[in-house]
Fold:
Amino acid sequence: GENVEQHPSTLSVQEGDSAVIKCTYSDSASNYFPWYKQELGKGPQLIIDIRSNVGEKKDQRIAVTLNKTAKHFSLHITETQPEDSAVYFCAANDYKLSFGAGTTVTVRA
Amino acid sequence: EPEVTQTPSHQVTQMGQEVILRCVPISNHLYFYWYRQILGQKVEFLVSFYNNEISEKSEIFDDQFSVERPDGSNFTLKIRSTKLEDSAMYFCASVPSSYNEQFFGPGTRLTVL
Structure:
């Protein structure tokens, strides 16, 4: 089955700086890669996703890149704000979602 | 905006008891999932459900677990005889079609004593 590795496990950034989270996956059949943000006591909320026919996608301060050859994808958050503090999960979809272990992002004011 | 709802938000039960976790998926969605998240760990797939039957299940989803869509709107997860290690957040998700965004509910926190 699919195995998704996510790094780092924790990330502390100064407000206004960028944050980058990286994931790798194992199953070349996976073709949909969402990123979820989870705030305390809530379910995962989709923030951005990318499909395997696209190399990069951007939505305001958030961008995701995908390298299918290397089987890795990354989340980039620019101009971080305190409300970006949360746990971020990457996932790969080979019909069901296989999640990474999560990255706890803390934005210092 | 339509959303997935789950009840109860928190369930406390004694080991060996049966629990039923309830979910109301988004109305026009076709695929339904249960995931669980043990405290501090990654979200794990349990089971997927399509066209009124299980389409895939993980190793976690043993004979103690079952799912049902009893009335065309609710989607339930039953654990027949709970164990301490079943304590986790359980998330329901629904999808309009395969390989699309999975919409997650807020979760049910299950505590087995």
Q: What stands out?
A: The CA atoms of residues 32 and 112 of chain B lie 25 Å apart. The mean pLDDT of chain B is 93. Chain B touches chain A at residues 4, 33, 35, 41-45, 48, 55-56, 91, 93, 98-107 (CB under 8 Å). The first strand of chain B starts at residue 5 and ends at 7.
